[in-house]
């Protein structure tokens, strides 16, 4: 097999360059990184294993931090997203993330907390927004040159040598890149390359002990079943299970996700399992499920989606290969923050790579060399130091939040619904109010420090030569 260095756009209109960043995976994180790199005219190539952009996951929710990341990545991004985003349909619920209900018959109506189970309370910094994943991807792909995306390209091997990274694909193609950013999902191949030698125990994702059933229902059918409860985001809570519902597609559809605790181990290599419809229904019969929720559940396909995460990731990079999004910090979905964390990753990484290109001569960028390698490593290290603590904290706290939805605290003790709501009321602001402008400055400043250290090292090595 012949190795190929892809032709790339030039960083400098007057010269050619083989400086090209490979992005493995065309999900939200990979596409957001590509949008940022496009603004800076930094060459990239996206390799996606699927035959087309995927819509797996259906509903996507984005908080204030994610919307601000959009603004900082591309001034058009947030505006276009808001054109397709759906919030709670009742104006008075505009700033409510979720409203608690019981799963049992009656949904808790008449209890003391009824009508006061929403969170956050008295906080206008949050505005509920959600969209169909496909609609969001359509917006993102409109900002990217189509010729920079290659489908049906599944990576089978990846290695670093001679100051470059070589990718081998299942179809036999081989290409070289200056650096690689793995955005290939929770079970992505790039994670094994980055962690396998130094931290093999942290390569595989961990089963969280929960799985879900999913459905998307026309809003007219949802209203027929739930009445006014269908128009706004609800979290139906019980011991060992919870169901999340919220409007998407400009209120034309409702997204339904039914969670079930699983005390066993997940078997098999796939993340999904087909089960008999009777088995799906049996998962919830012991709860005395409200008939309205049972009718919603009847609309779901009897497929269990296992929830996996990466609770520990000791580093997000290894030399010229970097991790972004779920492959770095896959999380359970309980805080609605996974997509937002991927957008934050993309913002910080594209800005620090921009700093790299702005402060490095075109002659160094265009030619594989130890100097270029060290500068790319400095960029990845700066990204890692800024993003990893915050992203991993989101993974940890998401697990605690998921326990609250099933009326347990982080120690496994039962809690009352009203106490769970009180705790949930204060759990999210640290995510929503993250200072991304400061994070950008810290990452760029840290890169400058690391590069300055490289200069001192190069001078010392030069003076030591005979």
Which SSEs are present, and which pair or pack?
Blueprint: E1 4-5, E2 21-24, H1 28-39, E3 44-47, E4 59-61, H2 64-73, H3 77-84, E5 98-102, E6 118-119, E7 130-132, H4 133-141, E8 149-150, E9 155-161, E10 164-169, E11 174-177, E12 179-182, H5 189-195, E13 206-218, H6 219-226, E14 234-238, E15 241-248, E16 253-261, E17 272-274, H7 277-285, H8 291-297, E18 303-309, E19 317-318, E20 321-323, H9 326-329, H10 338-359, H11 362-365, H12 370-405, H13 417-424, H14 429-432, H15 436-464
Parallel strand pairs: 1-11, 2-3, 2-12, 3-8, 5-14, 12-20
Antiparallel strand pairs: 4-7, 5-6, 9-10, 10-11, 13-16, 13-18, 14-15, 15-16, 17-18, 19-20
Which properties best describe this structure?
single chain; 466 residues; alpha/beta; FAD/NAD(P)-binding domain; D-Amino Acid Oxidase, Chain A, domain 2; 2 domains; 8-stranded mixed sheet; 6-stranded mixed sheet; 15 helices; 20 strands; globular; disordered N terminus; disordered C terminus
Structure overview:
The radius of gyration is 23 Å and the shape is globular. The two termini are 42 Å apart. By secondary structure, it is of the alpha/beta class. Helices cover 38% and strands 21% of the residues. The protein folds into 2 domains: 4-85 and 129-205 and 312-464, 3-Layer(bba) Sandwich (FAD/NAD(P)-binding domain); 207-309, D-Amino Acid Oxidase, Chain A, domain 2 (2-Layer Sandwich). The chain has 15 helices and 20 strands. It has an 8-stranded mixed β-sheet with strand order 6-5-14-15-16-13-18-17, sandwiched between helices. Mean pLDDT is 92; it is low at 1-16 and 459-466. α1 (28-39) runs parallel beside α4 and α3 runs antiparallel to α4 (133-141). It comes from Massarina eburnea CBS 473.64. This is FAD/NAD(P)-binding domain-containing protein.
């Amino acid at each position: 097999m012949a190795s190929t260095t892809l032709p790339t756009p030039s960083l400098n209109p007057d010269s050619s360059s083989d400086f090209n960043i490979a992005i493995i995976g065309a999900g939200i994180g990979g596409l957001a990184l590509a949008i940022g790199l496009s603004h800076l005219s930094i060459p990239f190539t996206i390799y996606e294993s699927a035959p087309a952009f995927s819509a797996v996951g259906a509903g996507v929710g984005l908080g204030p931090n994610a919307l601000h990341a959009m603004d900082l990545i591309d001034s058009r991004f947030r505006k276009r997203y808001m054109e397709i985003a759906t919030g709670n349909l009742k104006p008075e619920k505009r700033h409510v993330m979720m409203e608690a209900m019981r799963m049992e018959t009656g949904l808790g109506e008449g209890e003391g907390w009824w009508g006061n189970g929403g969170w956050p309370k008295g906080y206008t910094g949050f505005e509920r927004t959600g969209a169909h994943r496909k609609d969001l991807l359509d917006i993102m792909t409109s900002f990217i040159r189509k010729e920079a995306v290659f489908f049906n390209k599944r990576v089978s091997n990846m290695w670093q040598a001679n100051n470059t990274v070589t990718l081998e694909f299942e179809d036999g193609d081989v290409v070289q890149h200056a650096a690689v950013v793995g955005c290939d999902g929770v079970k992505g191949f790039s994670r094994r390359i980055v962690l396998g030698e130094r931290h093999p125990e942290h390569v595989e994702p961990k089963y969280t002990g929960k799985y879900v059933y999913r459905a998307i229902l026309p809003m007219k059918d949802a209203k027929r079943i739930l009445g006014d409860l269908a128009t706004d985001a609800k979290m139906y809570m019980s011991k060992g299970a919870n169901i999340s519902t919220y409007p998407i597609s400009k209120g034309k559809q409702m997204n339904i996700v039914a969670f079930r605790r699983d005390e066993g181990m997940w078997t098999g290599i796939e993340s999904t399992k087909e089960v008999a419809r009777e088995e799906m229904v049996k998962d919830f019969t012991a709860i005395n499920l409200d008939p309205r929720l049972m009718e919603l559940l009847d609309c779901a396909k009897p497929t269990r989606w296992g929830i996996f995460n990466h609770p520990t990731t000791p580093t997000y990079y290894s030399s010229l290969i970097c991790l972004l999004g779920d492959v770095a910090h896959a999380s359970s979905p309980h805080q609605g923050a996974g997509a937002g964390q991927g957008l934050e990753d993309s913002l910080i990484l594209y800005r620090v790579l921009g700093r790299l290109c702005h402060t490095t001569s075109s002659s160094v960028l265009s030619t594989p060399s130890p100097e270029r390698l060290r500068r790319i490593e400095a960029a990845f290290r700066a990204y890692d130091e800024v993003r990893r603590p915050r992203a991993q904290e989101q993974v940890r706290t998401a697990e605690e939040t998921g326990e609250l939805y099933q009326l347990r605290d982080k120690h496994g003790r039962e809690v009352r619904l009203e106490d769970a709501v009180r705790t949930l009321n204060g759990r999210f602001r640290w995510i929503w109010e993250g200072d991304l402008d400061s994070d950008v400055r810290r990452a760029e400043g840290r890169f400058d420090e690391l590069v300055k250290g490289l200069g001192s090292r190069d001078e010392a090595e030069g003076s030591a030569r005979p």
